[in-house]
Structures are given as C-alpha cells and as structure tokens.
Amino acid sequence: MSRTDVYLAKSTDPYRAASEALDSLNFSVSGKKVYIKPNLTGGRPSQDGLTSDIGLVRAVLERLHDCPKITIGESCSDTAIAFEELGYLDLVNEFPNVQLEDIRTAPIAWKPIPRPFHTNEMPFNASVFEHDYIINIAKMKTHSLAGVTLCLKNIFGFVPTRKQKLMYHPFIRKAVLDMNQVVHSHLCMVDGIWGNEFDEIQSMPRKTGAVIAGDDLLAVDIIAAEVMGINLGNIDTYRLAFDMWHDPEINLLGSELNDVKTSYRQGALFSTRLRYLKETTQSLVYRAVNRH
C-alpha cells in the first residue's frame, strides 16, 4: 500500500496554517462543482473550541479556480445566524459562484447503504450529490458518544432535519460508517488551533495550535487524534472503518507530532448524559413512526 501524505501545520493563525498545509500538498481544484462542509456549532467563535475557523474555508476558496458552483453547507441549531455571525456572507460577496446552504431546509434524498452497519438507507441533503468534489473541514473535539468528532463524524451534518438527526445520533458510532459510504470526502482538514475537550456540547477550549490536512479521511483523523493524545484503535467506529476501507500508512509532512501533541480529556457533563438519554428515547419513538 502506498503511503498517503498528511500535512501538520503548527501555528496560532488558522488561515496561515491552512494556507501552508494546502500549498505544501499542492492543493488546487479547477472546473469542478465543490461542496465545502465546515463544522459550525451555532455562531460561536472558533476560539471557543466548537466551530471550524472561517480562515480554513477562505484558504480553500482561494485555491478553487473556475469552479461553476461552490456550496458551503451546514446544519446546526441556527445555521443562518451562524453563517451571518461567523462571516460567511462576506465570502459569498467576495468569491464568485459561492452559495450558502442550510442543510436543515434542503431537499432530501434517501440513499441505500452499500454495506450497512446501522441502517439500510439514510436521508441526505440532495444537493451534495450535485457536486463533484467534497471538502470536509472538521473541528478537533472529543465526543462522549463517538469518542472524537473529526472528519468521519463531520459527515453527520449531511443528515437534514432535527428529527432525522435524532433518529441516528444515539447510534452515531455505526451511523457515521453508513454515511461515509455514500458521501466521499476528497479533501479533509481539521482545525485544531483551538480544540474542545471533555464535553462536545459545552465550550471547554484547548489551545493546541495545529491544522491537519490531506486527501485521506482516515489518515487525517489518525494524525488529529494523535495530536489529541487519543488512539483511534481504541474506538470501535474506527476499527470497523479500518477493516472496511484501509488502515493507512501515513507520510507525515510539516511539523512533528511532539511539537503540538497534548492530552485531551474525555468525558461528558451530567447534563449532557441526560440530554443523550432523552435523545435515545426520542429516537426510538421517531423510528417507530418514521422512515429510517
């Protein structure tokens, strides 16, 4: 198996780190319809540890040339407010052919899962399938259900509605394996300038100073998790992913892991555990009366 390049940039500046990583990987896309999926948790600034910094998105847009359609999409608690407060409306005005999509209100396409782990079919926003190239921009965070929320988990945002999310979120460890068989990421990035530890719902920022990029989702997630001091081999989702796709051999470029490696606490607040117990109950009710 050939080794896959992953670039690790050490910096306190998200845009500069992303630009360094993309240029070192010779990233450039021309003439394609591109979908960019950041991780936006409301309108919180990236320093709170919950939201992908817009600097990574800007760095990507500057390296897209003659692309007839560029969509930036997300589905958070209030996507329109998040786009406005985080500066995405400025990107629409600045870069040609860029449009914003609130995935929660997008048309829905049900897709069969080639090798089901949790369900035989799932709903996605239909427009993502009108694009040729998917750019996955995740945030470096722990997650009480999934272990970590990196590029593999970021695809969960393509489930459109709140009720549909609730049907799958309690089972996210296997649901994301189903989703990533349908939506394939071509470029993956993780914003770890400020990450978030312990509880994915509450802001518990951890200054880490890293941006990771590459074209292999699992390789990027492995390096991001190593920066966090987490071994993905201990998370069943990733063990299954390695078996289904591959356990990549990585050629790490840029900074050394020890330059940025830290130790992220894992866990959840009691309030978060109660929320997930409620979601599990809601999920079972919705699944009894809705297509899933």
What does this structure look like?
The protein has 292 residues and is α/β, with parallel strands linked by helices. It has helices at 14-24, 54-61, 79-85, 88-94, 151-154, 162-168, 172-182, 217-228, 236-244, 257-260, 270-289; strands spanning 4-10, 29-30, 33-38, 64-65, 69-74, 98-102, 108-112, 121-125, 133-143, 147-149, 187-196, 205-214, 250-254. It has one domain: 3-Layer(aba) Sandwich (Rossmann fold), CATH 3.40.50. The protein is built from eleven helices and 13 strands. The strands form three sheets. Strands 1, 3, 5, 6, 9, 10, 11, 12 and 13 form a nine-stranded mixed sheet that branches. A hairpin with an 8-residue loop joins strand 7 (108-112) and strand 8 (121-125). Helix 1 (14-24) packs parallel to helix 2 (54-61). The radius of gyration is 18 Å and the shape is globular.
Notable traits:
single chain; two-stranded parallel ribbon; nine-stranded mixed sheet; 11 helices; 292 residues; globular; alpha/beta; Rossmann fold
Please specify the SSE layout and strand pairing.
Layout: E1 4-10, H1 14-24, E2 29-30, E3 33-38, H2 54-61, E4 64-65, E5 69-74, H3 79-85, H4 88-94, E6 98-102, E7 108-112, E8 121-125, E9 133-143, E10 147-149, H5 151-154, H6 162-168, H7 172-182, E11 187-196, E12 205-214, H8 217-228, H9 236-244, E13 250-254, H10 257-260, H11 270-289
Parallel strand pairs: 1-13, 2-4, 3-5, 3-9, 5-6, 9-11
Antiparallel strand pairs: 1-12, 7-8, 9-10, 11-12
Helix pairs in contact: 1-2, 6-11, 7-9
